[in-house]
Amino acid sequence: MQARELLQQHIAKTASLTEEQFEYLFSFFTPMSLKKGQTIISEGDKVDCEYFVVSGCLKAFFINDEIKMYILQFAMPTWWTSDYAALYNGTKATIHIDCITDAEILCLSNSDREKLCSALHPVEHFFRWRTNRGYIASQKRLLSLMNNDAKKRYEELLAQYPQLYNLVPKHLIAAYLGVSRETLSRLHTGQH
Amino acid sequence: MQARELLQQHIAKTASLTEEQFEYLFSFFTPMSLKKGQTIISEGDKVDCEYFVVSGCLKAFFINDEIKMYILQFAMPTWWTSDYAALYNGTKATIHIDCITDAEILCLSNSDREKLCSALHPVEHFFRWRTNRGYIASQKRLLSLMNNDAKKRYEELLAQYPQLYNLVPKHLIAAYLGVSRETLSRLHTGQH
Fold first, then answer.
1. Does ipTM surpass 0.95 in this model?
2. Beta strands B49-55 and B80-81: pairing type?
3. What's phi and psi for A37, nearest 5 deg?
4. Coil, helix or strand for A135?
5. Locate the Cyclic nucleotide-binding domain: which residues (chains A, B) (predicted)?
């Protein structure tokens, strides 16, 4: 599906925009083609944009003081990603975002989003619900991390991203769950 | 400070409402006085409201499969709290919220918030930024949990809630950090 059509369908699920309003909104987005392994945000960067995924898969991750990688989010088509703390507060990035596969994304700057929200009430409505859903996903991830049952966390992950096990290298799935690759294999075998 | 004035000042930091618009908004809020230990949300409840804290302190928490308590959030004056996953999705509560101290809160129902956001663009703007900030706090909490350095997590907690160490029983601070009370004492002694 074309980027424009995918974004239009995605927004229409939450807010009603006229064709003219969507045209205006879409004019603020910049398409980008990314290669597997390409980085869009590194720790310490100034962050000006958020990204809507059209195709491919990205990961948002964090390297802790013991050089261990944790994955915060896998960003699939119709997901949004950025370092939102840095984007909203104007602070430096504390996470990294890069591409697991080749990807097509649409980029929207912070100032353009605010301009659009101020100009069009339905766009403000859309972005409020977009963040509400992000907030829920983040709370769910918190609860999942606090719960020690790795098997349950693995099942939740597969429910959220059914196609993940075939798409994404196993060590990245282990890094999302915070378990070793051996534990992941055991969970997967027990599962099927 | 009176509940009305506190909410008005809180909203004015993000959105410009006329006196008449604020009057209309405020008419949808219901004040509640709560006693120390009182519960407002229990796991399994239907959740219809979110809560703005006027005075006192509440905690949002979760009991995992090993009957261990984790604290997701301490809610202080001008903070909002609810089980937002349950509130937004219409699902049953997966967390508990109760009062650490006596508290005064203002209650707003889900349907009234949507009515207000639809009627007044500045109110939709306010709630978008309220959730943006909640999302950032949630992401920060995630990163903090993923980082193994308990000392750093403790320092971040004190920076976020400077008055917390005197206000809140020590076992609750330990439950927020996910450490034992002994570790907390060691962190506190090393700190001062």
1. no
2. antiparallel
3. 90, -15
4. helix
5. 13-116
B33, part of any domain: yes
Chain A interface, Cβ < 8 Å to B? 62, 64-66, 68, 70, 72, 84-85, 88-89, 94-95, 117-118, 121, 124-125, 127-128, 131-136, 138-143, 145-149, 152, 178
The total of structural domains in chain A comes to 1
Q: Is residue A18 situated within a structural domain?
A: yes
Dig out the tokens for B57 from the structure: 């302190």
Please give the order of strands across the beta sheet that includes B58-63: B39-41, B96-99, B58-63, B69-75
Question: What average pLDDT does chain A have?
Answer: 91
CATH number at residue B36: 2.60.120.10
* Chain B interface with A: residues with Cβ < 8 Å: 62, 64-66, 68, 70, 72, 84-85, 88-89, 94-95, 117-118, 121, 124-125, 127-128, 131-136, 138-143, 145-149, 152, 178
H/E element holding A81?
strand A80-81
Residue type, B84: Y
Q: Along the 192 residues of chain B, how does pLDDT read in single tens digits?
A: 799 999 999 999 999 999 999 999 999 999 999 999 999 999 999 999 999 999 999 999 998 777 888 898 999 999 999 999 999 999 999 999 999 999 999 999 999 999 999 999 999 999 999 999 999 999 988 888 877 677 888 888 888 788 888 888 888 988 888 888 888 888 888 754
Q: Alpha helix locations (H) across chain B?
A: 3-12, 19-26, 84-89, 110-119, 121-146, 150-160, 164-167, 170-177, 181-191
Distance separating alpha carbons of residues B179 and A120, to the nearest angstrom: 47
| Inside any domain, residue A146 | no
Residue A67 located in a structural domain: yes
